[in-house]
Specification:
Shape: globular
Pfam families: ABC_tran
Radius of gyration: 24 Å
Distance between the termini: 34 Å
Number of helices: 9
CATH architecture of the largest domain: 3-Layer(aba) Sandwich
Number of domains: 2
CATH superfamily of the largest domain: P-loop containing nucleotide triphosphate hydrolases
Strand content: 25-35%
InterPro entries: AAA+_ATPase, ABC_transporter-like_ATP-bd, ABC_transporter-like_CS, ABC_transpr_MalK/UgpC-like, Mo/tungstate-bd_C_term_dom, NA-bd_OB-fold, P-loop_NTPase
CATH class of the largest domain: Alpha Beta
Strand order of the largest sheet: 7-8-9-3-10-11
CATH topology of the largest domain: Rossmann fold
Keywords: ATP-binding, Cell membrane, Membrane, Nucleotide-binding, Translocase, Transport
Protein name: ABC transporter ATP-binding protein
Structural class: alpha+beta
GO molecular function: ATP binding
Helix content: 25-40%
Order of helices and strands: EEEHEEEEHHHEHEHEEHHEHEEEEEEEEE
């Protein structure tokens, strides 16, 4: 499978507003790349430029050694000649065609012989576990089944690259979970290069081999999912990736309260670091007796929010609201005073870039 390379890619719709600006991104051979970010960040525009549905204002798109777009050279390859499969958010199935006929459609357009077309459609439907509904029509299927048929139609033509534009957003929670597992299995079995657009960080963290976080048309960080979670490149990534989001406390010129407490702790251990902001992940904030290596402060419990396997606790610490996530039952009620502590802090400089992080083992870059 080919490597996708985006070089200096930009897209403007006029008036000086850029949906994507100066994007350099490489999707490695066989990777499952998630483009992650809030609505309007440029991720779908990027996917549509890769697919050929949008033409760049500047830059180059290369797949393997084949140039698909080059504004400088006046090169543009139309979508039907890019050998890519695209799945939309709304499935886009033909209502008057059966499931089998929908899956065969792309093969028919390529003039594949009928016997081969039928065999390939059945193989693709078996891959997504909808082979028992070949003769039904889309209106007779559930949303999850329709999504699987759309995937099978894409897989049937055996594209070099799979492009998925928020294909799970219309499904309920259970079906989304099933389809995440299916997509991961399909990727592992096929070894295809996949570019997946989503605003759902859980989808990105659970499925992707690489995650590219975008904001306002610019790439913020490209990394494997767990590395991005553990070491966010800047404040935007730190606050966007994680639920509940990381709490970031601005230090300021004369820090007091929680900011002062955190800064005094950091300076006592990371003497070369002068952060402008300090972050705490809710998952890293604990309740109870702290170890001697940890930062700690008294906290008032404001709410305990059980969620089955976890408990989220809203705390008031030195007049600042913090959240803690516990994986064991919380023996506290609103109004109680407890000790909160952590052995992991994230440090950011004045422009929001990550400086370092601190844990009980010491500072690390």
């Amino acid at each position: 499978m080919p490597t996708i390379t985006l070089s200096g890619l930009a897209k403007s719709y006029g008036g000086g507003d850029y949906a994507v600006r100066n994007l350099d991104l490489t999707v490695p051979d066989g990777a499952f790349m998630c483009l992650l970010g809030p609505s309007g960040c440029g991720k779908t525009t990027t996917l549509r430029m890769i697919a050929g549905l949008e033409q760049p204002t500047a830059g180059t798109i290369t797949v393997g050694d084949r140039v698909l777009d080059s504004v400088e050279r006046g090169r543009y390859v139309p979508p039907e000649k890019r050998e890519m499969g695209l799945v939309f958010q709304n499935y886009a199935l033909w209502p008057h065609l059966s499931v089998r006929e929908n899956v065969e459609f792309g093969l028919r357009m390529r003039k594949v012989p009928a016997a081969r077309r039928r065999a390939r459609a059945e193989e693709a439907l078996q891959m997504v576990h909808v082979d028992g509904a070949m003769d039904r029509y889309p209106s007779q299927l559930s949303g999850g089944q329709q999504q699987r048929v759309a995937l099978a139609r894409m897989l049937a033509v055996d594209p070099a690259v799979l492009l998925l534009d928020e294909p799970l957003s219309n499904l309920d929670a259970r079906l989304r979970l099933e389809m995440r597992a299916e997509l991961k299995r399909i990727h592992e079995e096929s070894g295809a290069t996949i570019v997946f657009v989503t605003h759902d960080q859980l989808e990105a963290l659970t499925m992707a081999t690489h995650v590219a976080v975008m904001d306002e048309g610019e790439l913020q960080q490209l990394a494997p999912p767990m590395e991005m979670y553990a070491r966010p490149a800047n404040r935007f990534v730190a606050e966007f990736v994680g639920s509940p989001p990381m709490a970031i406390v601005d230090v300021g010129p004369s820090p007091a309260g929680l900011a002062g407490s955190l800064l005094r702790f950091v300076k006592g251990r990371v003497v070369t670091c002068a952060p402008s902001a300090i972050g705490i992940r809710p998952e890293a904030l604990r309740l109870g007796a702290p170890p001697v290596s940890a930062w700690s402060e008294p906290a008032q419990v404001e709410a305990v929010l059980p969620a089955g396997s976890t408990w989220t606790v809203r705390l008031r610490v030195l007049d600042t609201e913090l959240y803690a996530v516990s994986y064991t039952p919380v023996d506290a009620v609103p109004g109680d005073t407890v000790t909160c502590w952590t052995e992991q802090l994230h440090l950011f400089d004045a422009d929001g870039s990550r400086m370092a992080a601190w844990d009980a083992a010491g500072a690390y870059a």
